[in-house]
Amino acid sequence: MLIKKNKKTSQNCKMVLQYHPQSAIMKRVVEKGSLNELVKLLQFKQSSQVQYFNPSFFLFNGHLQTIFNPFAALYMKKHNPIKFDREIFEFSDHGTIALDWVDLNPNKDVYNNKPILAIMPGLTSDNDEIYVLNMLIEAKLRGYQGVVINHRGSSGLDLTSPRIYCASSQDDLREAVNFIVNNYCSSLSRNRQRDIFLVGNSLGANLLANYLGEEGQQCPVKAACCVQPPMKIWVFSQTIRNTLYGFYDKVVAANLKKKFKHFAPGLRDRYKNELGIDIDQAIKDVKSSLDLDFTTAKAFGYESPEDYQHKASCIEKIPAIKTPTFIIMSKDDPLVGGEDCIDYEVCKKNPYVLLGVTHDGGHLGFFSSILSTKQWHVKPAFDFLDTFK
């Protein structure tokens, strides 16, 4: 429902959609109409507007939207309506992750032919983040089989190999997706029986965009949505260190430090013998997220933190994406860098990419009310995915 506002405020509530002028994605979106209720097409132009998101009066800027997220999550986690059935997936290096299926995993529900919706959480995040749960609730309502593809050492699992994850760990995502496709999307003769859709959030969105770009035409994914990826990780790194006196940097560093302490027993020998890194001392010395980028860069074969930040950024892979992809961004995102992180031209040059940018929303916020745990961005994300269902 549209809420009337004054001219200035209404302008701020629009999501501007940017796309290639001959985009087959927008043609299909418009013709099939999943986004039609929200989209007002500007004929003969390369953009349209969704006049819908009304941020809560009490959450009137990106900082408040972002900071409200963990508080809303406390209530959401306590009253979590999602029940998971866990499947352990083993990588080729014997590392493991949890595939957390909603209700029943496909091994126990062989007659389920619903399309699969796989979700990747953000940095240091687990399967019970509010944005993950909101996506899974909507997926269930819209007839998808939801599953969370967790990171290594996340959602209650320990490391089973001396390897963690970073912003360029799309090989992990590739193995997990291939496993799901080969086992649950194909018949014995390997004829596709049901489709798979992917949604990535924050770092998970960066991994997803990198994966889609590397797979190109061979990608088995029907359509994808990347919610607020740090397109330019170097901008993200600078932004969190320079915003609110480094508040976000301290929070990110503390979360990473906690994760690395959890990882340390499984990493200690490899880091010392192969990389010459005393992982315990490295963790102890962490004062900023940049400190851990030195360790990450060395562990994943990059020359420096700067080399890692540039080469791991999905802006390098977006031009090669050949899967219909909706990228959702907010101008007031205080973590990834807002407009400084959004590359409109790169996105608009790729006919497979639809870029949606709001004025408000913060980072993984999009709260319309402080009395609700619902997040607005979930609806347009699924309206896009439903177009290709």
TrEMBL record:
List of catalytic residues: 202, 333, 363
Q: Where is the signal peptide?
A: none
User: Gene3D superfamilies, alphabetically?
Assistant: alpha/beta hydrolase (3.40.50.1820)
Alphabetically, the GO molecular function entries are: monoacylglycerol lipase activity; short-chain carboxylesterase activity
Q: Read off the SUPFAM superfamilies from this record.
A: alpha/beta-Hydrolases
Give start and end of each AB hydrolase-1 domain: 132-367
Family classification: Belongs to the AB hydrolase superfamily. AB hydrolase 4 family.
Protein name as annotated: Embryogenesis-associated protein emb8-like
